[in-house]
């Protein structure tokens, strides 16, 4: 890979003509082109996209991170933006439009061809996680009465338009637009031209409603070899087609999102090329919510300062207890998130999950309690301190895995994104319980703990 | 969705005939079928797969979590396993085989058709993250001299075999098997049957080496509308084809892997249907490594116990300092992981990342330092304690974001999985530095801190 192609590109944007730019990009390998454009400073990227042919600009936009696309469309003129959006495939245009500020999106749609704009608006109204939000509307659809020869003639006559469709299947509909069957393109090769396609189609085709979830789509694509599934409305009218790759892309996006959220990157992806203050503000929004949770947990220590004062060695084990319980709980969170996305658990099964986890917590808590409690005994020289620390860790591990395992299910039931809040809420609960357990145990055993010191 | 279909299925496995089982599964919606089989207890699932037609079993296996597939193949007889593996598409068979115990895999391959086995072995030798590991070898490939009519005749004659190929493109090779061009299936529709395909093919087709990385493939698919790219060896001989959906699936798998790893789920995915002791052992393997890191960090507190003894209020703020710095660092880890996977940063740019992060750390550290330091002042009534806590948090935030931002790049350079160790190593470093900073500052200001108490 040419890591520095973007520097040359940046110089060209400043000085070069649109033709020189297009030539330079054509000269790059596919894999270097997107990365070069993605690494440009914001204003150079906007300038470049506006200078290119809308068709070429649309191709490049397909490969840029979402945040850069939104930013570029925000910076260029409405007319420039509209010309590029028109060149995008309908489903991609809808994604781009729904990421924009609503007023900006309205302006751009206003400037577009009215039919295109209507289609984009309809697609943008769907949630990203249902078939309607994942489908593309570019497809080959013919009436069941049409003859094979006429379909082939249409394909020939519009070959250029269908070039970008990249279709493998031909859908057969009745006069009301209701899905009736499906054909492989190759079936057209093997049939006499006078036969109606309704006679050679596969009847009772597999289809999904526009409201089908990604979990349903995943199960469908897991069980079939087709690469696309048609999408219909409640009257079984054909609306579009969801491809296997569109679903896979959405699943990749979602686990990326989950990963970023759990690590405290909220409000959309962050790239280091973004303005420093925006990055700082977004990270702080999450950190400052977390401070509040930390204060709540720490208040448990503050309330028991007198215990700590008398057995100072406990102060060494508080952060260990906090970290280990947090880790145990996060493991359970991850398993629940994974099982949710595979459809192996549903929100109302929280009790079943809790029962499974509590046994695991008892086993792991015992092992961890012996290890950490043993260390506490060795460090302080008093077995009772070891008991306090170890027993608190055992109980708190059981609490952590139960809370961690059920929290994502509970949040899902209340339509809160489990990736966002599971981690911080979990550690607050486990910190509070952990600090409470160890300090309360210690306060009841003070004579034993102090006597031996 | 029928959440309880698996209970009925389990009963049928115990009592029913293979035909009754096949009928029951046929009666389920696609989306319910995989979930029902995935929820079965381990032995019922193995029994079911062995009882079904190998073809049907292969279809179901396509939708199960990897761990269940490996487990089922481990439990059934070698002959049963071999018959099912033969029915899987080559790339999928290779994935399954490379997940198995090596001896088990060898036995199964031995039992298979020799040509199939050789192909699966060759594919299994590739890394999962290069084009060779993602390609499928089922493709349509013809000599450039062949006439369009002959190609169509071959398609017709072998329609049944090609049924599972699901191909959209026809690849054209020379007599040595080197890639020379590509055709859309539809091009065959539009051409006189006597013309050689070499005349109508797109020449200079796009292709990748079998060693091309997922980052390169992502950039390629981002920039083109094709759904598949041919893969060649170093002599440009055609080996297979990578589909867009195969790449997307791999990317989804990888971010899932990253997510699970950062949450401490190592040694492969965990499902709650797995044996309790296996789940416990795997989670403990990671937790016990983490204990050691915790002891290292806590040793800094132990070494400064005398300071803590004199300013007990500090003990309340140690866990807050630890948690907040860990969170700030993890945000930087996530941004670096994301930029690495987009190809926007390469390992040798650690210095550039560090410089970008340190500024951000200074801004966020100042804000967080004022908030937490203010709280410490308010709680203790002494401004000096606020200063100690706040200033330590400022410095430690700067350390955390620099370490968090660069650690994934450094680990990647040394070929260690950044998702696995970034989190625990990061928090150990930030804990050690944080505890050291706050306790050292406090020890130098003891008269001020104690005087005011």
SSE layout:
The structure is a homodimer of 453-residue chains.
Chain A: H1 5-15, H2 18-27, H3 30-39, H4 42-51, H5 54-61, H6 66-75, H7 78-87, H8 90-99, H9 102-111, H10 114-124, H11 131-134, E1 140-143, H12 148-157, H13 159-162, E2 169-173, E3 179-184, H14 185-189, H15 197-200, E4 202-203, E5 208-209, H16 214-223, E6 228-232, E7 238-243, H17 244-262, H18 276-303, H19 305-310, H20 314-342, H21 350-380, H22 383-413, H23 418-444, H24 446-452
Parallel strand pairs in A: 1-2, 5-6
Antiparallel strand pairs in A: 2-3, 3-4, 6-7
Summary of the model, kept short:
Chain A is an alpha/beta fold. Chain A has helices at residues 5-15, 18-27, 30-39, 42-51, 54-61, 66-75, 78-87, 90-99, 102-111, 114-124, 131-134, 148-157, 159-162, 185-189, 197-200, 214-223, 244-262, 276-303, 305-310, 314-342, 350-380, 383-413, 418-444, 446-452, and strands at residues 140-143, 169-173, 179-184, 202-203, 208-209, 228-232, 238-243.
């Amino acid at each position: 890979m040419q890591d520095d192609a973007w520097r040359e590109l940046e110089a060209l944007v400043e000085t070069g003509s649109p033709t020189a730019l297009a030539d330079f990009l054509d000269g790059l390998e596919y894999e270097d082109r997107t990365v070069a454009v993605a690494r440009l400073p914001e204003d150079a990227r906007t300038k470049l996209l506006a200078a290119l042919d809308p068709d070429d600009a649309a191709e490049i936009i397909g490969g840029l991170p979402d945040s850069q696309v939104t930013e570029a469309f925000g910076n260029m003129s409405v007319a420039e933006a509209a010309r590029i959006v028109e060149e995008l495939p309908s489903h991609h245009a809808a994604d781009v439009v729904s990421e924009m500020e609503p007023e900006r999106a309205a302006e751009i749609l206003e400037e577009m061809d009215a039919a295109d704009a209507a289609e984009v608006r309809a697609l943008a109204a769907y949630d990203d996680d249902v078939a309607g939000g994942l489908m593309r509307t570019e497809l080959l659809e013919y009436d069941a009465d049409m003859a094979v020869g006429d379909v082939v003639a249409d394909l020939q006559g519009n070959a250029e338009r269908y070039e970008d469709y990249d279709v493998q299947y031909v859908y057969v509909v009745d006069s009301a637009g209701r899905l009736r069957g499906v054909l492989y393109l190759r079936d057209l090769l093997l049939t006499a031209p006078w036969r109606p396609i309704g006679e050679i189609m596969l009847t009772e085709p597999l289809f999904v409603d526009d409201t089908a979830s990604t979990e349903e789509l995943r199960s469908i694509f897991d069980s079939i070899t087709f690469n696309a599934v048609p999408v219909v409305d409640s009257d079984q009218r054909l609306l579009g087609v969801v491809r296997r790759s569109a679903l896979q892309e959405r699943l990749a996006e979602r686990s990326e999102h989950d990963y970023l959220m759990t690590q405290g990157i909220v409000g959309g992806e962050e790239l280091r090329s973004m303005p420093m203050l925006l990055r700082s503000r977004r990270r702080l929004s999450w950190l400052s919510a977390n401070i509040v949770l930390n204060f709540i947990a720490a208040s448990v220590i503050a309330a028991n300062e007198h215990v700590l004062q008398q057995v100072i060695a406990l102060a060494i084990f508080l952060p260990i207890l906090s970290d280990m319980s947090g880790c145990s709980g996060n493991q359970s969170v991850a398993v629940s998130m994974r099982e949710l996305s595979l459809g192996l658990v549903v929100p109302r099964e929280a009790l079943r999950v809790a029962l499974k986890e509590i046994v695991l917590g008892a086993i792991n808590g015992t092992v961890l309690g012996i290890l950490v409690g043993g260390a506490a005994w060795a460090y302080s020289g008093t077995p009772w301190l070891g008991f306090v620390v170890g027993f608190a860790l055992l109980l708190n591990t059981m609490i952590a895995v139960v809370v961690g395992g059920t929290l994502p299910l509970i949040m899902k039931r209340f339509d809160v994104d489990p990736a966002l809040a599971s981690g911080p809420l979990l550690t607050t609960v486990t910190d509070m319980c952990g600090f409470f357990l160890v300090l309360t145990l210690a306060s009841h055993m003070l004579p034993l703990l102090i006597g031996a010191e």
